[in-house]
Amino acid sequence: MPESVDDLRFFTVVAASETLTAAARGLGCSLPVVSKRLAAMEQRLGVRLVRRGTRRLVLTSEGAALAKGIGPILTDVQRLEEEISGGSGELRGTLVVESTLGIGRAHIGPLLGEFGARHPRLAIRLTTTPLPVSPHRRDFDVAIHVGPLHDSTLRMRRLARNRRVVCASPAYVREHNAPATVHELAGHNCILLRENHGDYALWRFGEGSEEFRVRVAGTLSSDDGDVVTGWALEGRGLIMRSTWQVAPLLKDGRLVRVLADVPTPNADVYALHAPADHVPARVTAVLDFLGERLPERLA
């Protein structure tokens, strides 16, 4: 068996990663260190845990069995640690948070810094990704996701209300006039955000069963939300962005909403975590904290 609980935690990250390089990033160490430690575990156990020579990390049957059995053990260890240290009221251990890049950089990162200051014995590791959070990878305690997620195996907690809205700079509206209906979007330069491998030229309006999509076009597109917003601020066209991203710009007048009377679907901010009979205290604490502070930042 692995020599320590730390080995179990190490292999949990390896098993949940797509490559050893990704595991090294998640563990905060170099690829050679991960390879050496994994080889040492395999030597002690006398079996291969990971198949080498593939583009993606593939567990052997023995590796898969080990990964499956680790979860309940680590849950029991976490419960025991909390029972022992519960009298102090301190959060300990490591909190692993994954978030999509934009909201992670703008809001989740600063809030986790604030949370960490309140709990100095807790190590916090935030990973941001430009792609939607993958609920099938469980190398996180909490994942932050914007918009609906159809995965019943995870517990979801709404942290803040959010919608996507169409907006432009006052200068653009003065020069080109604001569209009065969604059909008039065809006559405007719509700045496109290429994300999530979806059809980014379709803008969604309406709610529930009355939701509909409008195809838009324009001369500018980017896979970077900050670049897209910057173009809008320069008066180069219309954008459709989340309120968590543009609310400060709307408040100070650098952007103005257009088509404000046309509803848009909910794209609320959710926290996801694995279902368990015993939710670690660090997870409960950070969910409560984010549920209180994130709406305040977005107000």
Automatic annotation (TrEMBL):
Superkingdom: Bacteria
Entry keyword Transcription: yes
GO terms, biological process: DNA-templated transcription
Keywords: DNA-binding, Transcription, Transcription regulation
A single MF term (Gene Ontology): sequence-specific DNA binding
Coiled-coil stretches noted in the UniProt entry, renumbered to this chain: none
Domain HTH lysR-type: 1-60
The keyword Iron-sulfur belongs to this UniProt entry's keyword annotation: no
InterPro entries, per the entry: LysR-type_TF_proteobact-type, LysR_HTH_N, LysR_subst-bd, WH-like_DNA-bd_sf, WH_DNA-bd_sf
Family recorded in the similarity comment: Belongs to the LysR transcriptional regulatory family.
UniProt xrefs under PANTHER family: HTH-TYPE TRANSCRIPTIONAL ACTIVATOR TTDR-RELATED, HTH-TYPE TRANSCRIPTIONAL REGULATOR
Name recorded for this polypeptide: DNA-binding transcriptional LysR family regulator
Organism: Nonomuraea fuscirosea
